[in-house]
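Blinded run. Sample ID left blank on purpose so nobody reads anything into the name before looking at the predicted structure. Input follows.
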Amino acid sequence: MIVVLRPDATQAQVDHILEKASQLGLKPHISRGVQKTIIGFIGPEDVLRVTPLDIFPGVEQVIPVLSPYKLVSREFKSENSIINLSGDIQLGAQRIIVMAGPCSIESYDRLRSIAQQVKSAGATVLRGGAFKPRTSPYDFQGLGEEGLKYMKAIGEEFGLLTITEVMDPRDVELVSRYVDILQIGARNMQNYTLLNEVGQSSKVVMLKRGLSATIKEWLMSAEYILSNGNFNVMLCERGIRTYETATRNTLDINAVGVVKEKSHLPVIVDPSHSTGRWGLVRPAARASVAAGCDGLIVEVHDAPEEAYSDGSQSLLPENFEGLMAEVRTIATAIGREV
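Blinded prediction complete.
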């Protein structure tokens, strides 16, 4: 249920509503917009139905939320959420944010070389996996904390924000010490223990869509994070599993528009995992920007044939430069920038 406050509602009136809600066992979440302040209440449906919240001083309107994902929905917040990543770098605003780097952190020197090149091409965030979930237990699993230290040092050197995947609730505190953005991978989209843990963190979270997840299931997973108090969440479309075998996954370009219609959260696209083929990454990125995404996350490697993972979908730095030039043109055409 959503309570819309009057423009002249006093803090004392707000506190009174929150106190009463607490007594009823309801969990409030306040969203302060440009024109309206609203309070979303999460709790037992029977309490929400019978409690006359509209009679409280300072209340303008009470609106039931019909979506199963309450806090994620446009009903809760009609304006687009904008995440302040750092300084003047905002995700969900006019500028499209590009994240780039290798699939796996392989060594300090290699990560530094790639970081320097993606920074020069216009990337804002350095990506790289320190903990790698692999289909085979015999494949490279990542450098762990050593890789995180490399990422932190190199990100600071080049003025890049950093993102890496966290796989285990027990690692959230560790990973948070080193990087700016926590990534929840596709295989962990419905790892509710992990979602609850990052929901209690103050870090920005990128939630990837599961391999076969519906949009509703994806948004419900985001709801777990928001319901724990962390509203700094971005959604990442990374391709879904279909009957098609020509590509690694199928990029659901429709998802960008559908999610933006249903939710206020920023949406980014991963054209690398969506296609699995480096030659398709650039057209997939162009389509994603044209569809209205708020960011891209792209795999870049300076020697893909030597990559420990996902070399076939990694762009050479010069191809990444070409991608950046193309998406800048498209962004300008739709009134945005990269």
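Unblinding after everyone has recorded impressions. The first strand starts at residue 2 and ends at 5.
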